[in-house]
Amino acid sequence: MQAIRVHFLSMTAALFSKHVLRLVSYSLLFFASTAVLIMAIFFLAAPKAHAASRIKDIVAVEGIRDNLLVGYGLVVGLNGTGDKLNNVTFTEKSLVAFLERLGVKTKGADLKTKNVAAVSLTASLPPFARAGSRIDVKVSTMGDASNLQGGVLLASPLMGADGQVYAVAQGSIAIEGFGAAGGDGSLVLKGVPTNGYIPNGAIIEKEIAFDFNTLDQLKLALRNADISTAGRIASAINKNMKAEIAKVQDPGTVSVTVPENYKDSVAELLAKIEHVPVTPDQIARVVIDEASGTIVMGENVRIDKVAIAQGNLVVQIKETPVISQPGAFAPEGAETVETTTSQITIDENADRKLAVLPVGATLHELVAGLNALGIGPRDLISILQTIKAAGAIQASIESR
Predict the structure, then answer these.
(1) pTM, two decimal places
(2) What is d(CA 290, CA 382) in angstroms, rounded to the nearest whole number?
């Protein structure tokens, strides 16, 4: 009887363990399946990597732009590095006029100061800038002043293209370089000490009138005109606003009609559409700067099937000094002399091979093929121009 009970308990324990293991297996399988499903949903829902840009980064809104300001002024307090008044007459006349406005009569006097310089002033007036706000000012010498270090600009008006004064500049100048001269005429220069700037050096006195919220239509000007990009911008705006309010006017312009519910809040409409992502299109273009040897190629550049070979004839002349001493039976007066021997080698780059690019070769394949020939940027410029002349490169080449 005791043996039967032990056998029964053993069978019960085994059966229980089997069911527990099966339950654990089903649980692990369930959790694994759930994890795989969640990961699949995550990867399907995750946005694909692309080169999308915000609309605000690829367009400019008509009417929202900077306005250029220009002015003329005097810089004082220079340490003997200003204009020579006997050479720069307009500096002397400006100084005399300035002093007379302050009640100092100097007309006809022989001024000898070297601490004054006549300068041109330039600045940019941002859109919607309000009176009382400040902007930076660029300062450049107009006469023969050699350094603006330590100079202070006297109050000078900044005018727009219409001749009206929009800001007044004044302040200490921060130069973009330095210069030092020695008594023997030696000179060390770094940067351009005749140029400088005044951070927040101008106060805006007059605003440019522009009522943005009264517009019935917005015109978005593409910074890089392209008909495909313009179409994508219009489609993205219409999809985001759920209304057909945007249309392509030309490759460089997209017009947006202001909806009725945004008639008095155009700024709110612009704030809503300027963050819409758009992937700009790009034409196949190769830009070459021959002066610096820089080459920039877009990813859409394609090459038809072409074979490229490049080799240079390199002539190398190496001269080695040789000491010639007189022999044991040399005549009296013989001296040791130094002569040179020349070794001339010619390298026709016979190890260079022929690179064959397939039809529709990409930018990566082009660069890899030319690098295999050991070609540097300078040679690459002439090769690209030759491929273009052969009609095998499907891109425009611009030289600068």
Answers:
(1) 0.63
(2) 10
Alpha-helix runs per DSSP H in 46-164: 55-58, 89-101
Number of domain units in the chain: 3
Q: What are phi and psi of 239, to 5 degrees?
A: -70, -40
Q: What's the domain range around 270?
A: 212-278
**Closest by Cα among 183, 217, 211, 178 to 195:** 178
Say whether both 292 and 311 belong to one domain: yes
d(CA 78, CA 73): 14
pLDDT in tens, the chain (400 residues): 444 444 444 444 444 444 444 544 444 444 444 443 444 443 344 444 446 889 999 999 988 889 999 999 999 999 888 999 888 889 888 998 898 888 888 877 778 888 999 999 999 999 889 999 999 999 999 999 989 999 999 999 999 999 999 999 999 999 876 666 665 556 666 678 899 999 999 999 999 888 888 888 999 999 988 999 999 999 999 999 999 999 999 999 999 999 988 888 888 999 999 999 999 888 888 888 877 777 787 777 777 776 666 665 444 545 567 777 777 666 776 677 776 665 545 455 555 555 555 666 666 676 676 676 667 677 777 777 777 787 777 777 887 7
Which residue in 278, 274, 344 sits closest to 313, CA to CA?
A: 344
Query: Same domain for 76 and 197?
Result: yes
Residue type at 247 in one-letter notation? K
Say how many Å lie between the first and final Cα of the chain, rounded.
106
Contact at 8 Å (CB) between 196 and 121? no
